[in-house]
């Protein structure tokens, strides 16, 4: 059983079809189809049901998917272990919240570049909930999320404690205004809604944005209010137009750090990254 076949099979499952998998793998559809067909012949079972133009994972396919993920994880772990005894090479997949990327991540990436110049860094931003799931699914090597994170398969190392503050436009108040925040899965969103209820504010609509600039821009013109790390607001070009209100400790203090799988092998690069970020935190 070839790893390339398992990698192709996993791509078809995760991307939802042959065409999408071929694009992800940068190959033609016929290659994907032939690899899946050979894998089915080798295993003596159908891995997918064909339904019109689409496909659906068969029971045998669901069993194989779990083993394929383990085998591909073992391949990555082996490569990572070999990197420890030789020149830094390969790829490190990092996930981050938008706010952490804005405040802290550049210093960590700079340290990794200096210590591991042959390593390719891939960074993607998402909500804490989505990033945690991607680490669990082996799609990321590590992620920087709002904690605490408690899961038997994950290790969470606290690096900084962010201070969340309530933010609105000068001359405006949050009463009856929409909450402007990141989409579902954002740790700050959950705290904002809880704070809204605890402070007796009317539960107005929620407006979702994907960027810090979008959120603070709309807040600055009085369209709503938000919760955001104090340092993000203070460093914003819009800071003069925004009013910051402190929050109670149980709402405002957010431990933030690196989450990774417990079964992953030790990697020097992750130690380098975490040390740079912890050391650089104000």
From TrEMBL:
InterPro entries: LysR_HTH_N, LysR_subst-bd, WH-like_DNA-bd_sf, WH_DNA-bd_sf. The keyword Transcription applies. Keywords: DNA-binding, Transcription, Transcription regulation. PROSITE patterns: HTH_LYSR. SUPFAM superfamilies: Periplasmic binding protein-like II (SSF53850), Winged helix' DNA-binding domain (SSF46785). Residues 1-58 form the HTH lysR-type domain. The keyword Transcription regulation applies. Belongs to the LysR transcriptional regulatory family. This is LysR family transcriptional regulator. It comes from Aromatoleum bremense. The lineage of its organism: Bacteria, Pseudomonadati, Pseudomonadota, Betaproteobacteria, Rhodocyclales.
């Amino acid at each position: 059983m070839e790893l390339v076949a398992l990698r192709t099979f996993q791509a078809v499952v995760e991307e939802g079809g042959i065409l999408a998998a071929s694009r992800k793998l940068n190959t033609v559809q016929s290659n994907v189809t032939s690899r899946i067909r050979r894998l089915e012949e080798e295993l003596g079972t159908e891995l997918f049901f064909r339904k019109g133009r689409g496909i659906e994972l068969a029971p045998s396919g669901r069993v194989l998917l779990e083993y394929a993920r383990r085998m591909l994880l073992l391949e990555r772990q082996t490569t990572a272990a070999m990197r420890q005894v030789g020149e830094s090479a390969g790829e490190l997949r990092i996930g981050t919240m938008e706010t952490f990327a804005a405040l802290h991540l550049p210093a960590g990436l700079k340290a990794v570049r200096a210590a591991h110049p042959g390593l390719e860094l891939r960074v993607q931003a998402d909500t804490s909930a989505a990033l945690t799931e991607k680490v669990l699914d082996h799609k990321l090597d590590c992620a920087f999320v709002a904690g605490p994170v408690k899961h038997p398969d994950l290790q969470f190392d606290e690096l900084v404690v962010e201070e969340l503050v309530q933010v609105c436009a000068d001359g405006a108040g949050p009463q009856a205004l929409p909450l402007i925040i990141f989409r579902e899965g954002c740790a700050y969103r959950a705290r904002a809604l809880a704070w809204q209820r605890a402070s007796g504010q009317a539960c107005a609509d929620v407006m979702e944005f994907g960027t810090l600039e979008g959120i603070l821009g709309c807040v600055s013109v009085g369209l709503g209010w938000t919760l955001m790390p104090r340092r993000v607001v203070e460093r914003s070009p819009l800071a003069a137009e925004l009013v910051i209100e402190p929050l109670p400790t149980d709402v405002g203090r957010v431990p933030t750090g690196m989450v990774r799988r417990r079964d992953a092998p030790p990697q020097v690069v992750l130690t380098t990254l975490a040390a740079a970020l912890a050391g650089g935190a104000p």
